[in-house]
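Deliverable D5.2: sample structural annotation.
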Amino acid sequence: MTSVFQNIPSEVVAALIAAAALILSKGLELLYNHIANKKQKAQDFSNLNKDYEIDKLLWEKLKEYEGDRIYLCQFHNGGKYQSGMSMRKFTMTNEMISDKVEDPSIPFFKDRLISEFTFLFKELVFEKKYECEDSSSEKDPLVKKTLEKFNNGSFYLYLILDINKAPLGYVGLHYMNKHILSKDKRDSLANFSQSLGALIKAD
């Protein structure tokens, strides 16, 4: 093999080696991108399946409770303030509605600051629930104003925690008319909400 290159100028040999190295590098890059794209497509499909499972469970629970809306909201970060402090936000990721509901609320609850509803989230995080049997008795003016936008009524929120007890989000059930749930119904809904934690965190 050495004799093949003996009569070839050294600069040509160097150029050939450099070209081969470049081709190998590009080939490895293409292979890496191909594998990454396949993994991304698999992840996208997995997320699609996860959303489908969540929607199915929410729909079954909406029918069981004969509610008007049931939804899943998840907590997330949303950038930083100039001070460096993280923005804490929540987004409604899944919602099922009854035939009586004309417009879904999911577009309204996208990238909303938790600080917009401080009283509500303080009670939700510390008590693991927020229950409002009658919107007319709601204490938080911002929550009350939001309820007016969505036909008032009653709503019940239950916190979802991960295995380390960190809040992941919550499930909400809304009735457009006053509707008081029994204790057993509330406990069952709270357990259902917590059961979604494993599905949210699943890879």
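Annotation notes: Residues 40-45 have pLDDT under 50 and may be disordered. The chain has five helices and six strands.
The annotation will be released with the project's public dataset once the embargo ends.
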